[in-house]
Specification:
By secondary structure, this protein is α/β, with parallel strands linked by helices. It contains 23 helices and 14 strands.
Amino acid sequence: MNNLNFGSPELARQDDGYALVDNPDGNGSFALDIERYWHEAVSLKYWLAGIVALGILLGVLVTLLTTPLYQASARLEVSQVTADVTNLDSLEVDSKISELQYLNTQYELLVSKFMAKRVMEAGNLTRDEAFRNAFALEDGGNLEAKIEGVLFDNISISPITQSSLVDVKFSSPDPVVSAEIANLWVKEFVAANYEKRFGANIEAREFLQKQIAELRERLARSEQDLVEYANANGILVLSAGEESGSESAGQTLIGADLQALNTALAAAVADRINAQAAVVGGNFPSTDPRNELLTNLSTAEAELAVLRANYGPDYPQVQEKRAEVNSLRAAISGGARDLLRSARVREAELREQVEQAKQRFLGQQGQGIRYGILKREVETNRQIYDALLQRFKELEASGAGENNIQIIDLADVPGAPYAPSLLLNLLFAIIGSVALAVALVYLKVALSQTLQDPEDVRRRLGLPLLGAIPREMNGELVECLTERSSEINEAYTTVRTNMNFLTPKGAPKVLMLTSSVPAEGKSISSAGIATSFAQLGKRTLLIDADLRNSKLKDTLKLHGYDKGGLVPLLASQEADMASQIVTLDQFGFDFLPMGRTPPNPVELLAGEKFAEVVETARGTYDQVIIDGAPMLALADAVEMSKVVDGVIFVIEAERIKLRGIENAIGRLRRSGAQVFGAIVTKVSQKNSAYGYGYGYGYGYGYGYGEDKREDQV
């Protein structure tokens, strides 16, 4: 049995498979109606299976039709830049940045267009037939741009977590090309990094090399000019001058000769003066060997004086000694004159030579100026050459730093393609197809405009669900409605029981059944409810008030009642209702047929006579069931709702759009009618999965046949 909530209807809008349901504490909660999605998936199982199968087939086809790709991988080590340990001034100051920022910068540079262009130029890929054939690149157009795009699209990097290592990978249809490009890429990146770090020093060294070569030639040329000028003019340089960049005359051979002659002349003059002093004073120079004569003379004179004093002047020994003294004096006097004479001769000769050397020196002074200019040019070139050479050595020392990016492993030629991968393609195909299937189920639920789940009566229409009637039944309608053990009878018994809880006093006495459109099971439901109340022992009257297209007589298989019925009662003031009522013993209730179809049904139903008929029935019967007209755009049901206690709305599952049902119910409510609940009819086996049984485990796969759908309404 279906339980009903007699309080205010809960908010039951369910647009996308979500429902606002009541918790026991009375607070609303937003819950996903997983059950509905599941049952929708079950109903679409063949479609969903087809989507998944198609996805798998597509994955296999993609794998078979895709060109195999070979991926080669080379490994680099990217270390943080270290400080310069030399004492030389750096040409660039390294930025102090974090290691993570530095690594990220290098990773971006690795896959930049700059590297693609550099690799293209380094490998001369515009003329590499293997590379062009691998990517089917033809001449014409902007070939370089195409190659750069291919390189940029097929290069990738994979940094190794928690390390400074990074793998550089290149993919192509040719394994050899993949390995060559991967290796070329890492080599060019290492070279580019080296140029970036030491590029200024490299350029400076290249510039200095050119300047040093030029200065070397200039220095050699200036030295050659100096030697040729000295040789041509007989200039012989004996020693370098004391002042840098100049050359004095005394440093030449003539200057040296003149200096030596001057020194010798000075010595000759001194010797002449000493010789004159010797002649006058009898003194010889200390180094003269004739000084011994002076010593001997002094000794002889002393001895002569002693002998004279002892023996007198005539003594023979005195005479001998006097002769010795006179001889010594004569020798000393002649030697002094000889010394003076030789000194004068030597002095004269030296003076003559000095004069000659002076004349040669004066003649060479003009040549010395030119020689000095050439000599200074040589020294200037030599100083500049030495300075540039020293700076070049310094740059060599500062530019010899170790590159912070090193190649760890070069790429090998891959032996097997890495793509396409059948496993990955199947995985992606399955995931994609499942996602598409889920989206299909979601859209099916979200875009569903008809009543799928009987519970939608409460959730989306805000009405109590009085019962759900199966689509099909076994056997004739009369047997199904009257046999208490049949599924149809059990279903309408559940409806009757739920109707007893609509008010505190039980089921409303006069109830009208209506629907949105014809053929929703309204007439069968009217007969089933009336039968159920009759089986309960109540006097029940079923009124056929569908004055436009009544099917109730055909449903109950009643024929021959066209002359009497409701229409004559409404059209005539003298007709007696009791005379128009037919007792149906097989169903257990009385039946007031419609009669002939009137031309003006709305006027008949809106008149006072219909209200009188209803009031008469109310006073005579325990339960009055009116089979009213469908809502459509008509006013029949609205007019009838004004004189009944309430309305039961009949809804066929999976047929009428919920918006149309809402509009029909809204029209009834705006007219003041009390809509007590709804009955869902023709519930299929798919709908039975939502869990609506009848207390005995019966499914909804039983009931009246589909071929009777249009007749038994």
